[in-house]
Amino acid sequence: MARIIAVTGKGGTGKTATSALLIRQLAKGNKVILAVDADPDTNLPETLGCDVSKTIGDIKEFMHSERDNLPPDTNKESVLKSKLYEIIEEMPKYDLLVMGRPEGAGCYCYVNNLLRGIMDKLVDNYDVLIIDAEAGLEHFSRRIFRRVDDLIVVTDGSRRGLRTAERIRELVDEMETDVSNIYVIANKVTETNREIIASTAKELGLELIGMIPVDEMLIRKDLAGEPLFDLPDDSAAVMEVERITAKLGL
């Protein structure tokens, strides 16, 4: 059974960069990886250095508009499945699937229902899924992914940021989503705020699994729009993510 890891957090906390570094670390091993960009902003492909032309949003749009035009005996799940496999980008060390968002108006519940069953089967082809999720947990509320083994909330070093992590934990409980573990990663940590972050997380009852330091190499690559896959192994952020994956048992 695949290990499903979802990464969420407010915009600007480094959620997508953290997802990319987790994928980079796991790609060094022998695991079969599916990277899923579930954020409508769709920044993960650029962070990984990939070009994506089609998304699940495009497929939803097609199925939504054509469902009544298909022959009555058409197996719509097979049509959706074939189109889904067409848009999976096969990279040398991982596969990439971009969720996107349909542009048209109307309810996509019908397509979502089909998609749930297909995603359940697709997951079985991989050892690990890394999902770059949006902060609102929309994809979880729609149950596109029926379970998540590890939900990682990326936050900055502020108390407000850690409060956001606490609120996300509350949302997961309210939604009764099948999430086994919730962890917090503090990002852009400095020596001056490291201790207060650890104590605040403990006070709020948050399981702090790692603190990624401010990394000038990462900042330069991010500003230049260069893939984080190219960061060297001695990057401070890369080394901390390596420790985090070890704590996760990966």
Automatic annotation (TrEMBL):
InterPro entries: CobQ/CobB/MinD/ParA_Nub-bd_dom, CooC, P-loop_NTPase, ParA/MinD_ATPase. GO terms for molecular function: ATP binding; ATP hydrolysis activity. Keywords: ATP-binding, Nucleotide-binding. GO terms for cellular component: cytoplasmic side of plasma membrane; cytosol. The keyword ATP-binding applies. Coiled coil: none annotated. Residues 4-227 form the CobQ/CobB/MinD/ParA nucleotide binding domain. One of its GO terms (biological process) is negative regulation of cell division. This is ATP-binding protein.
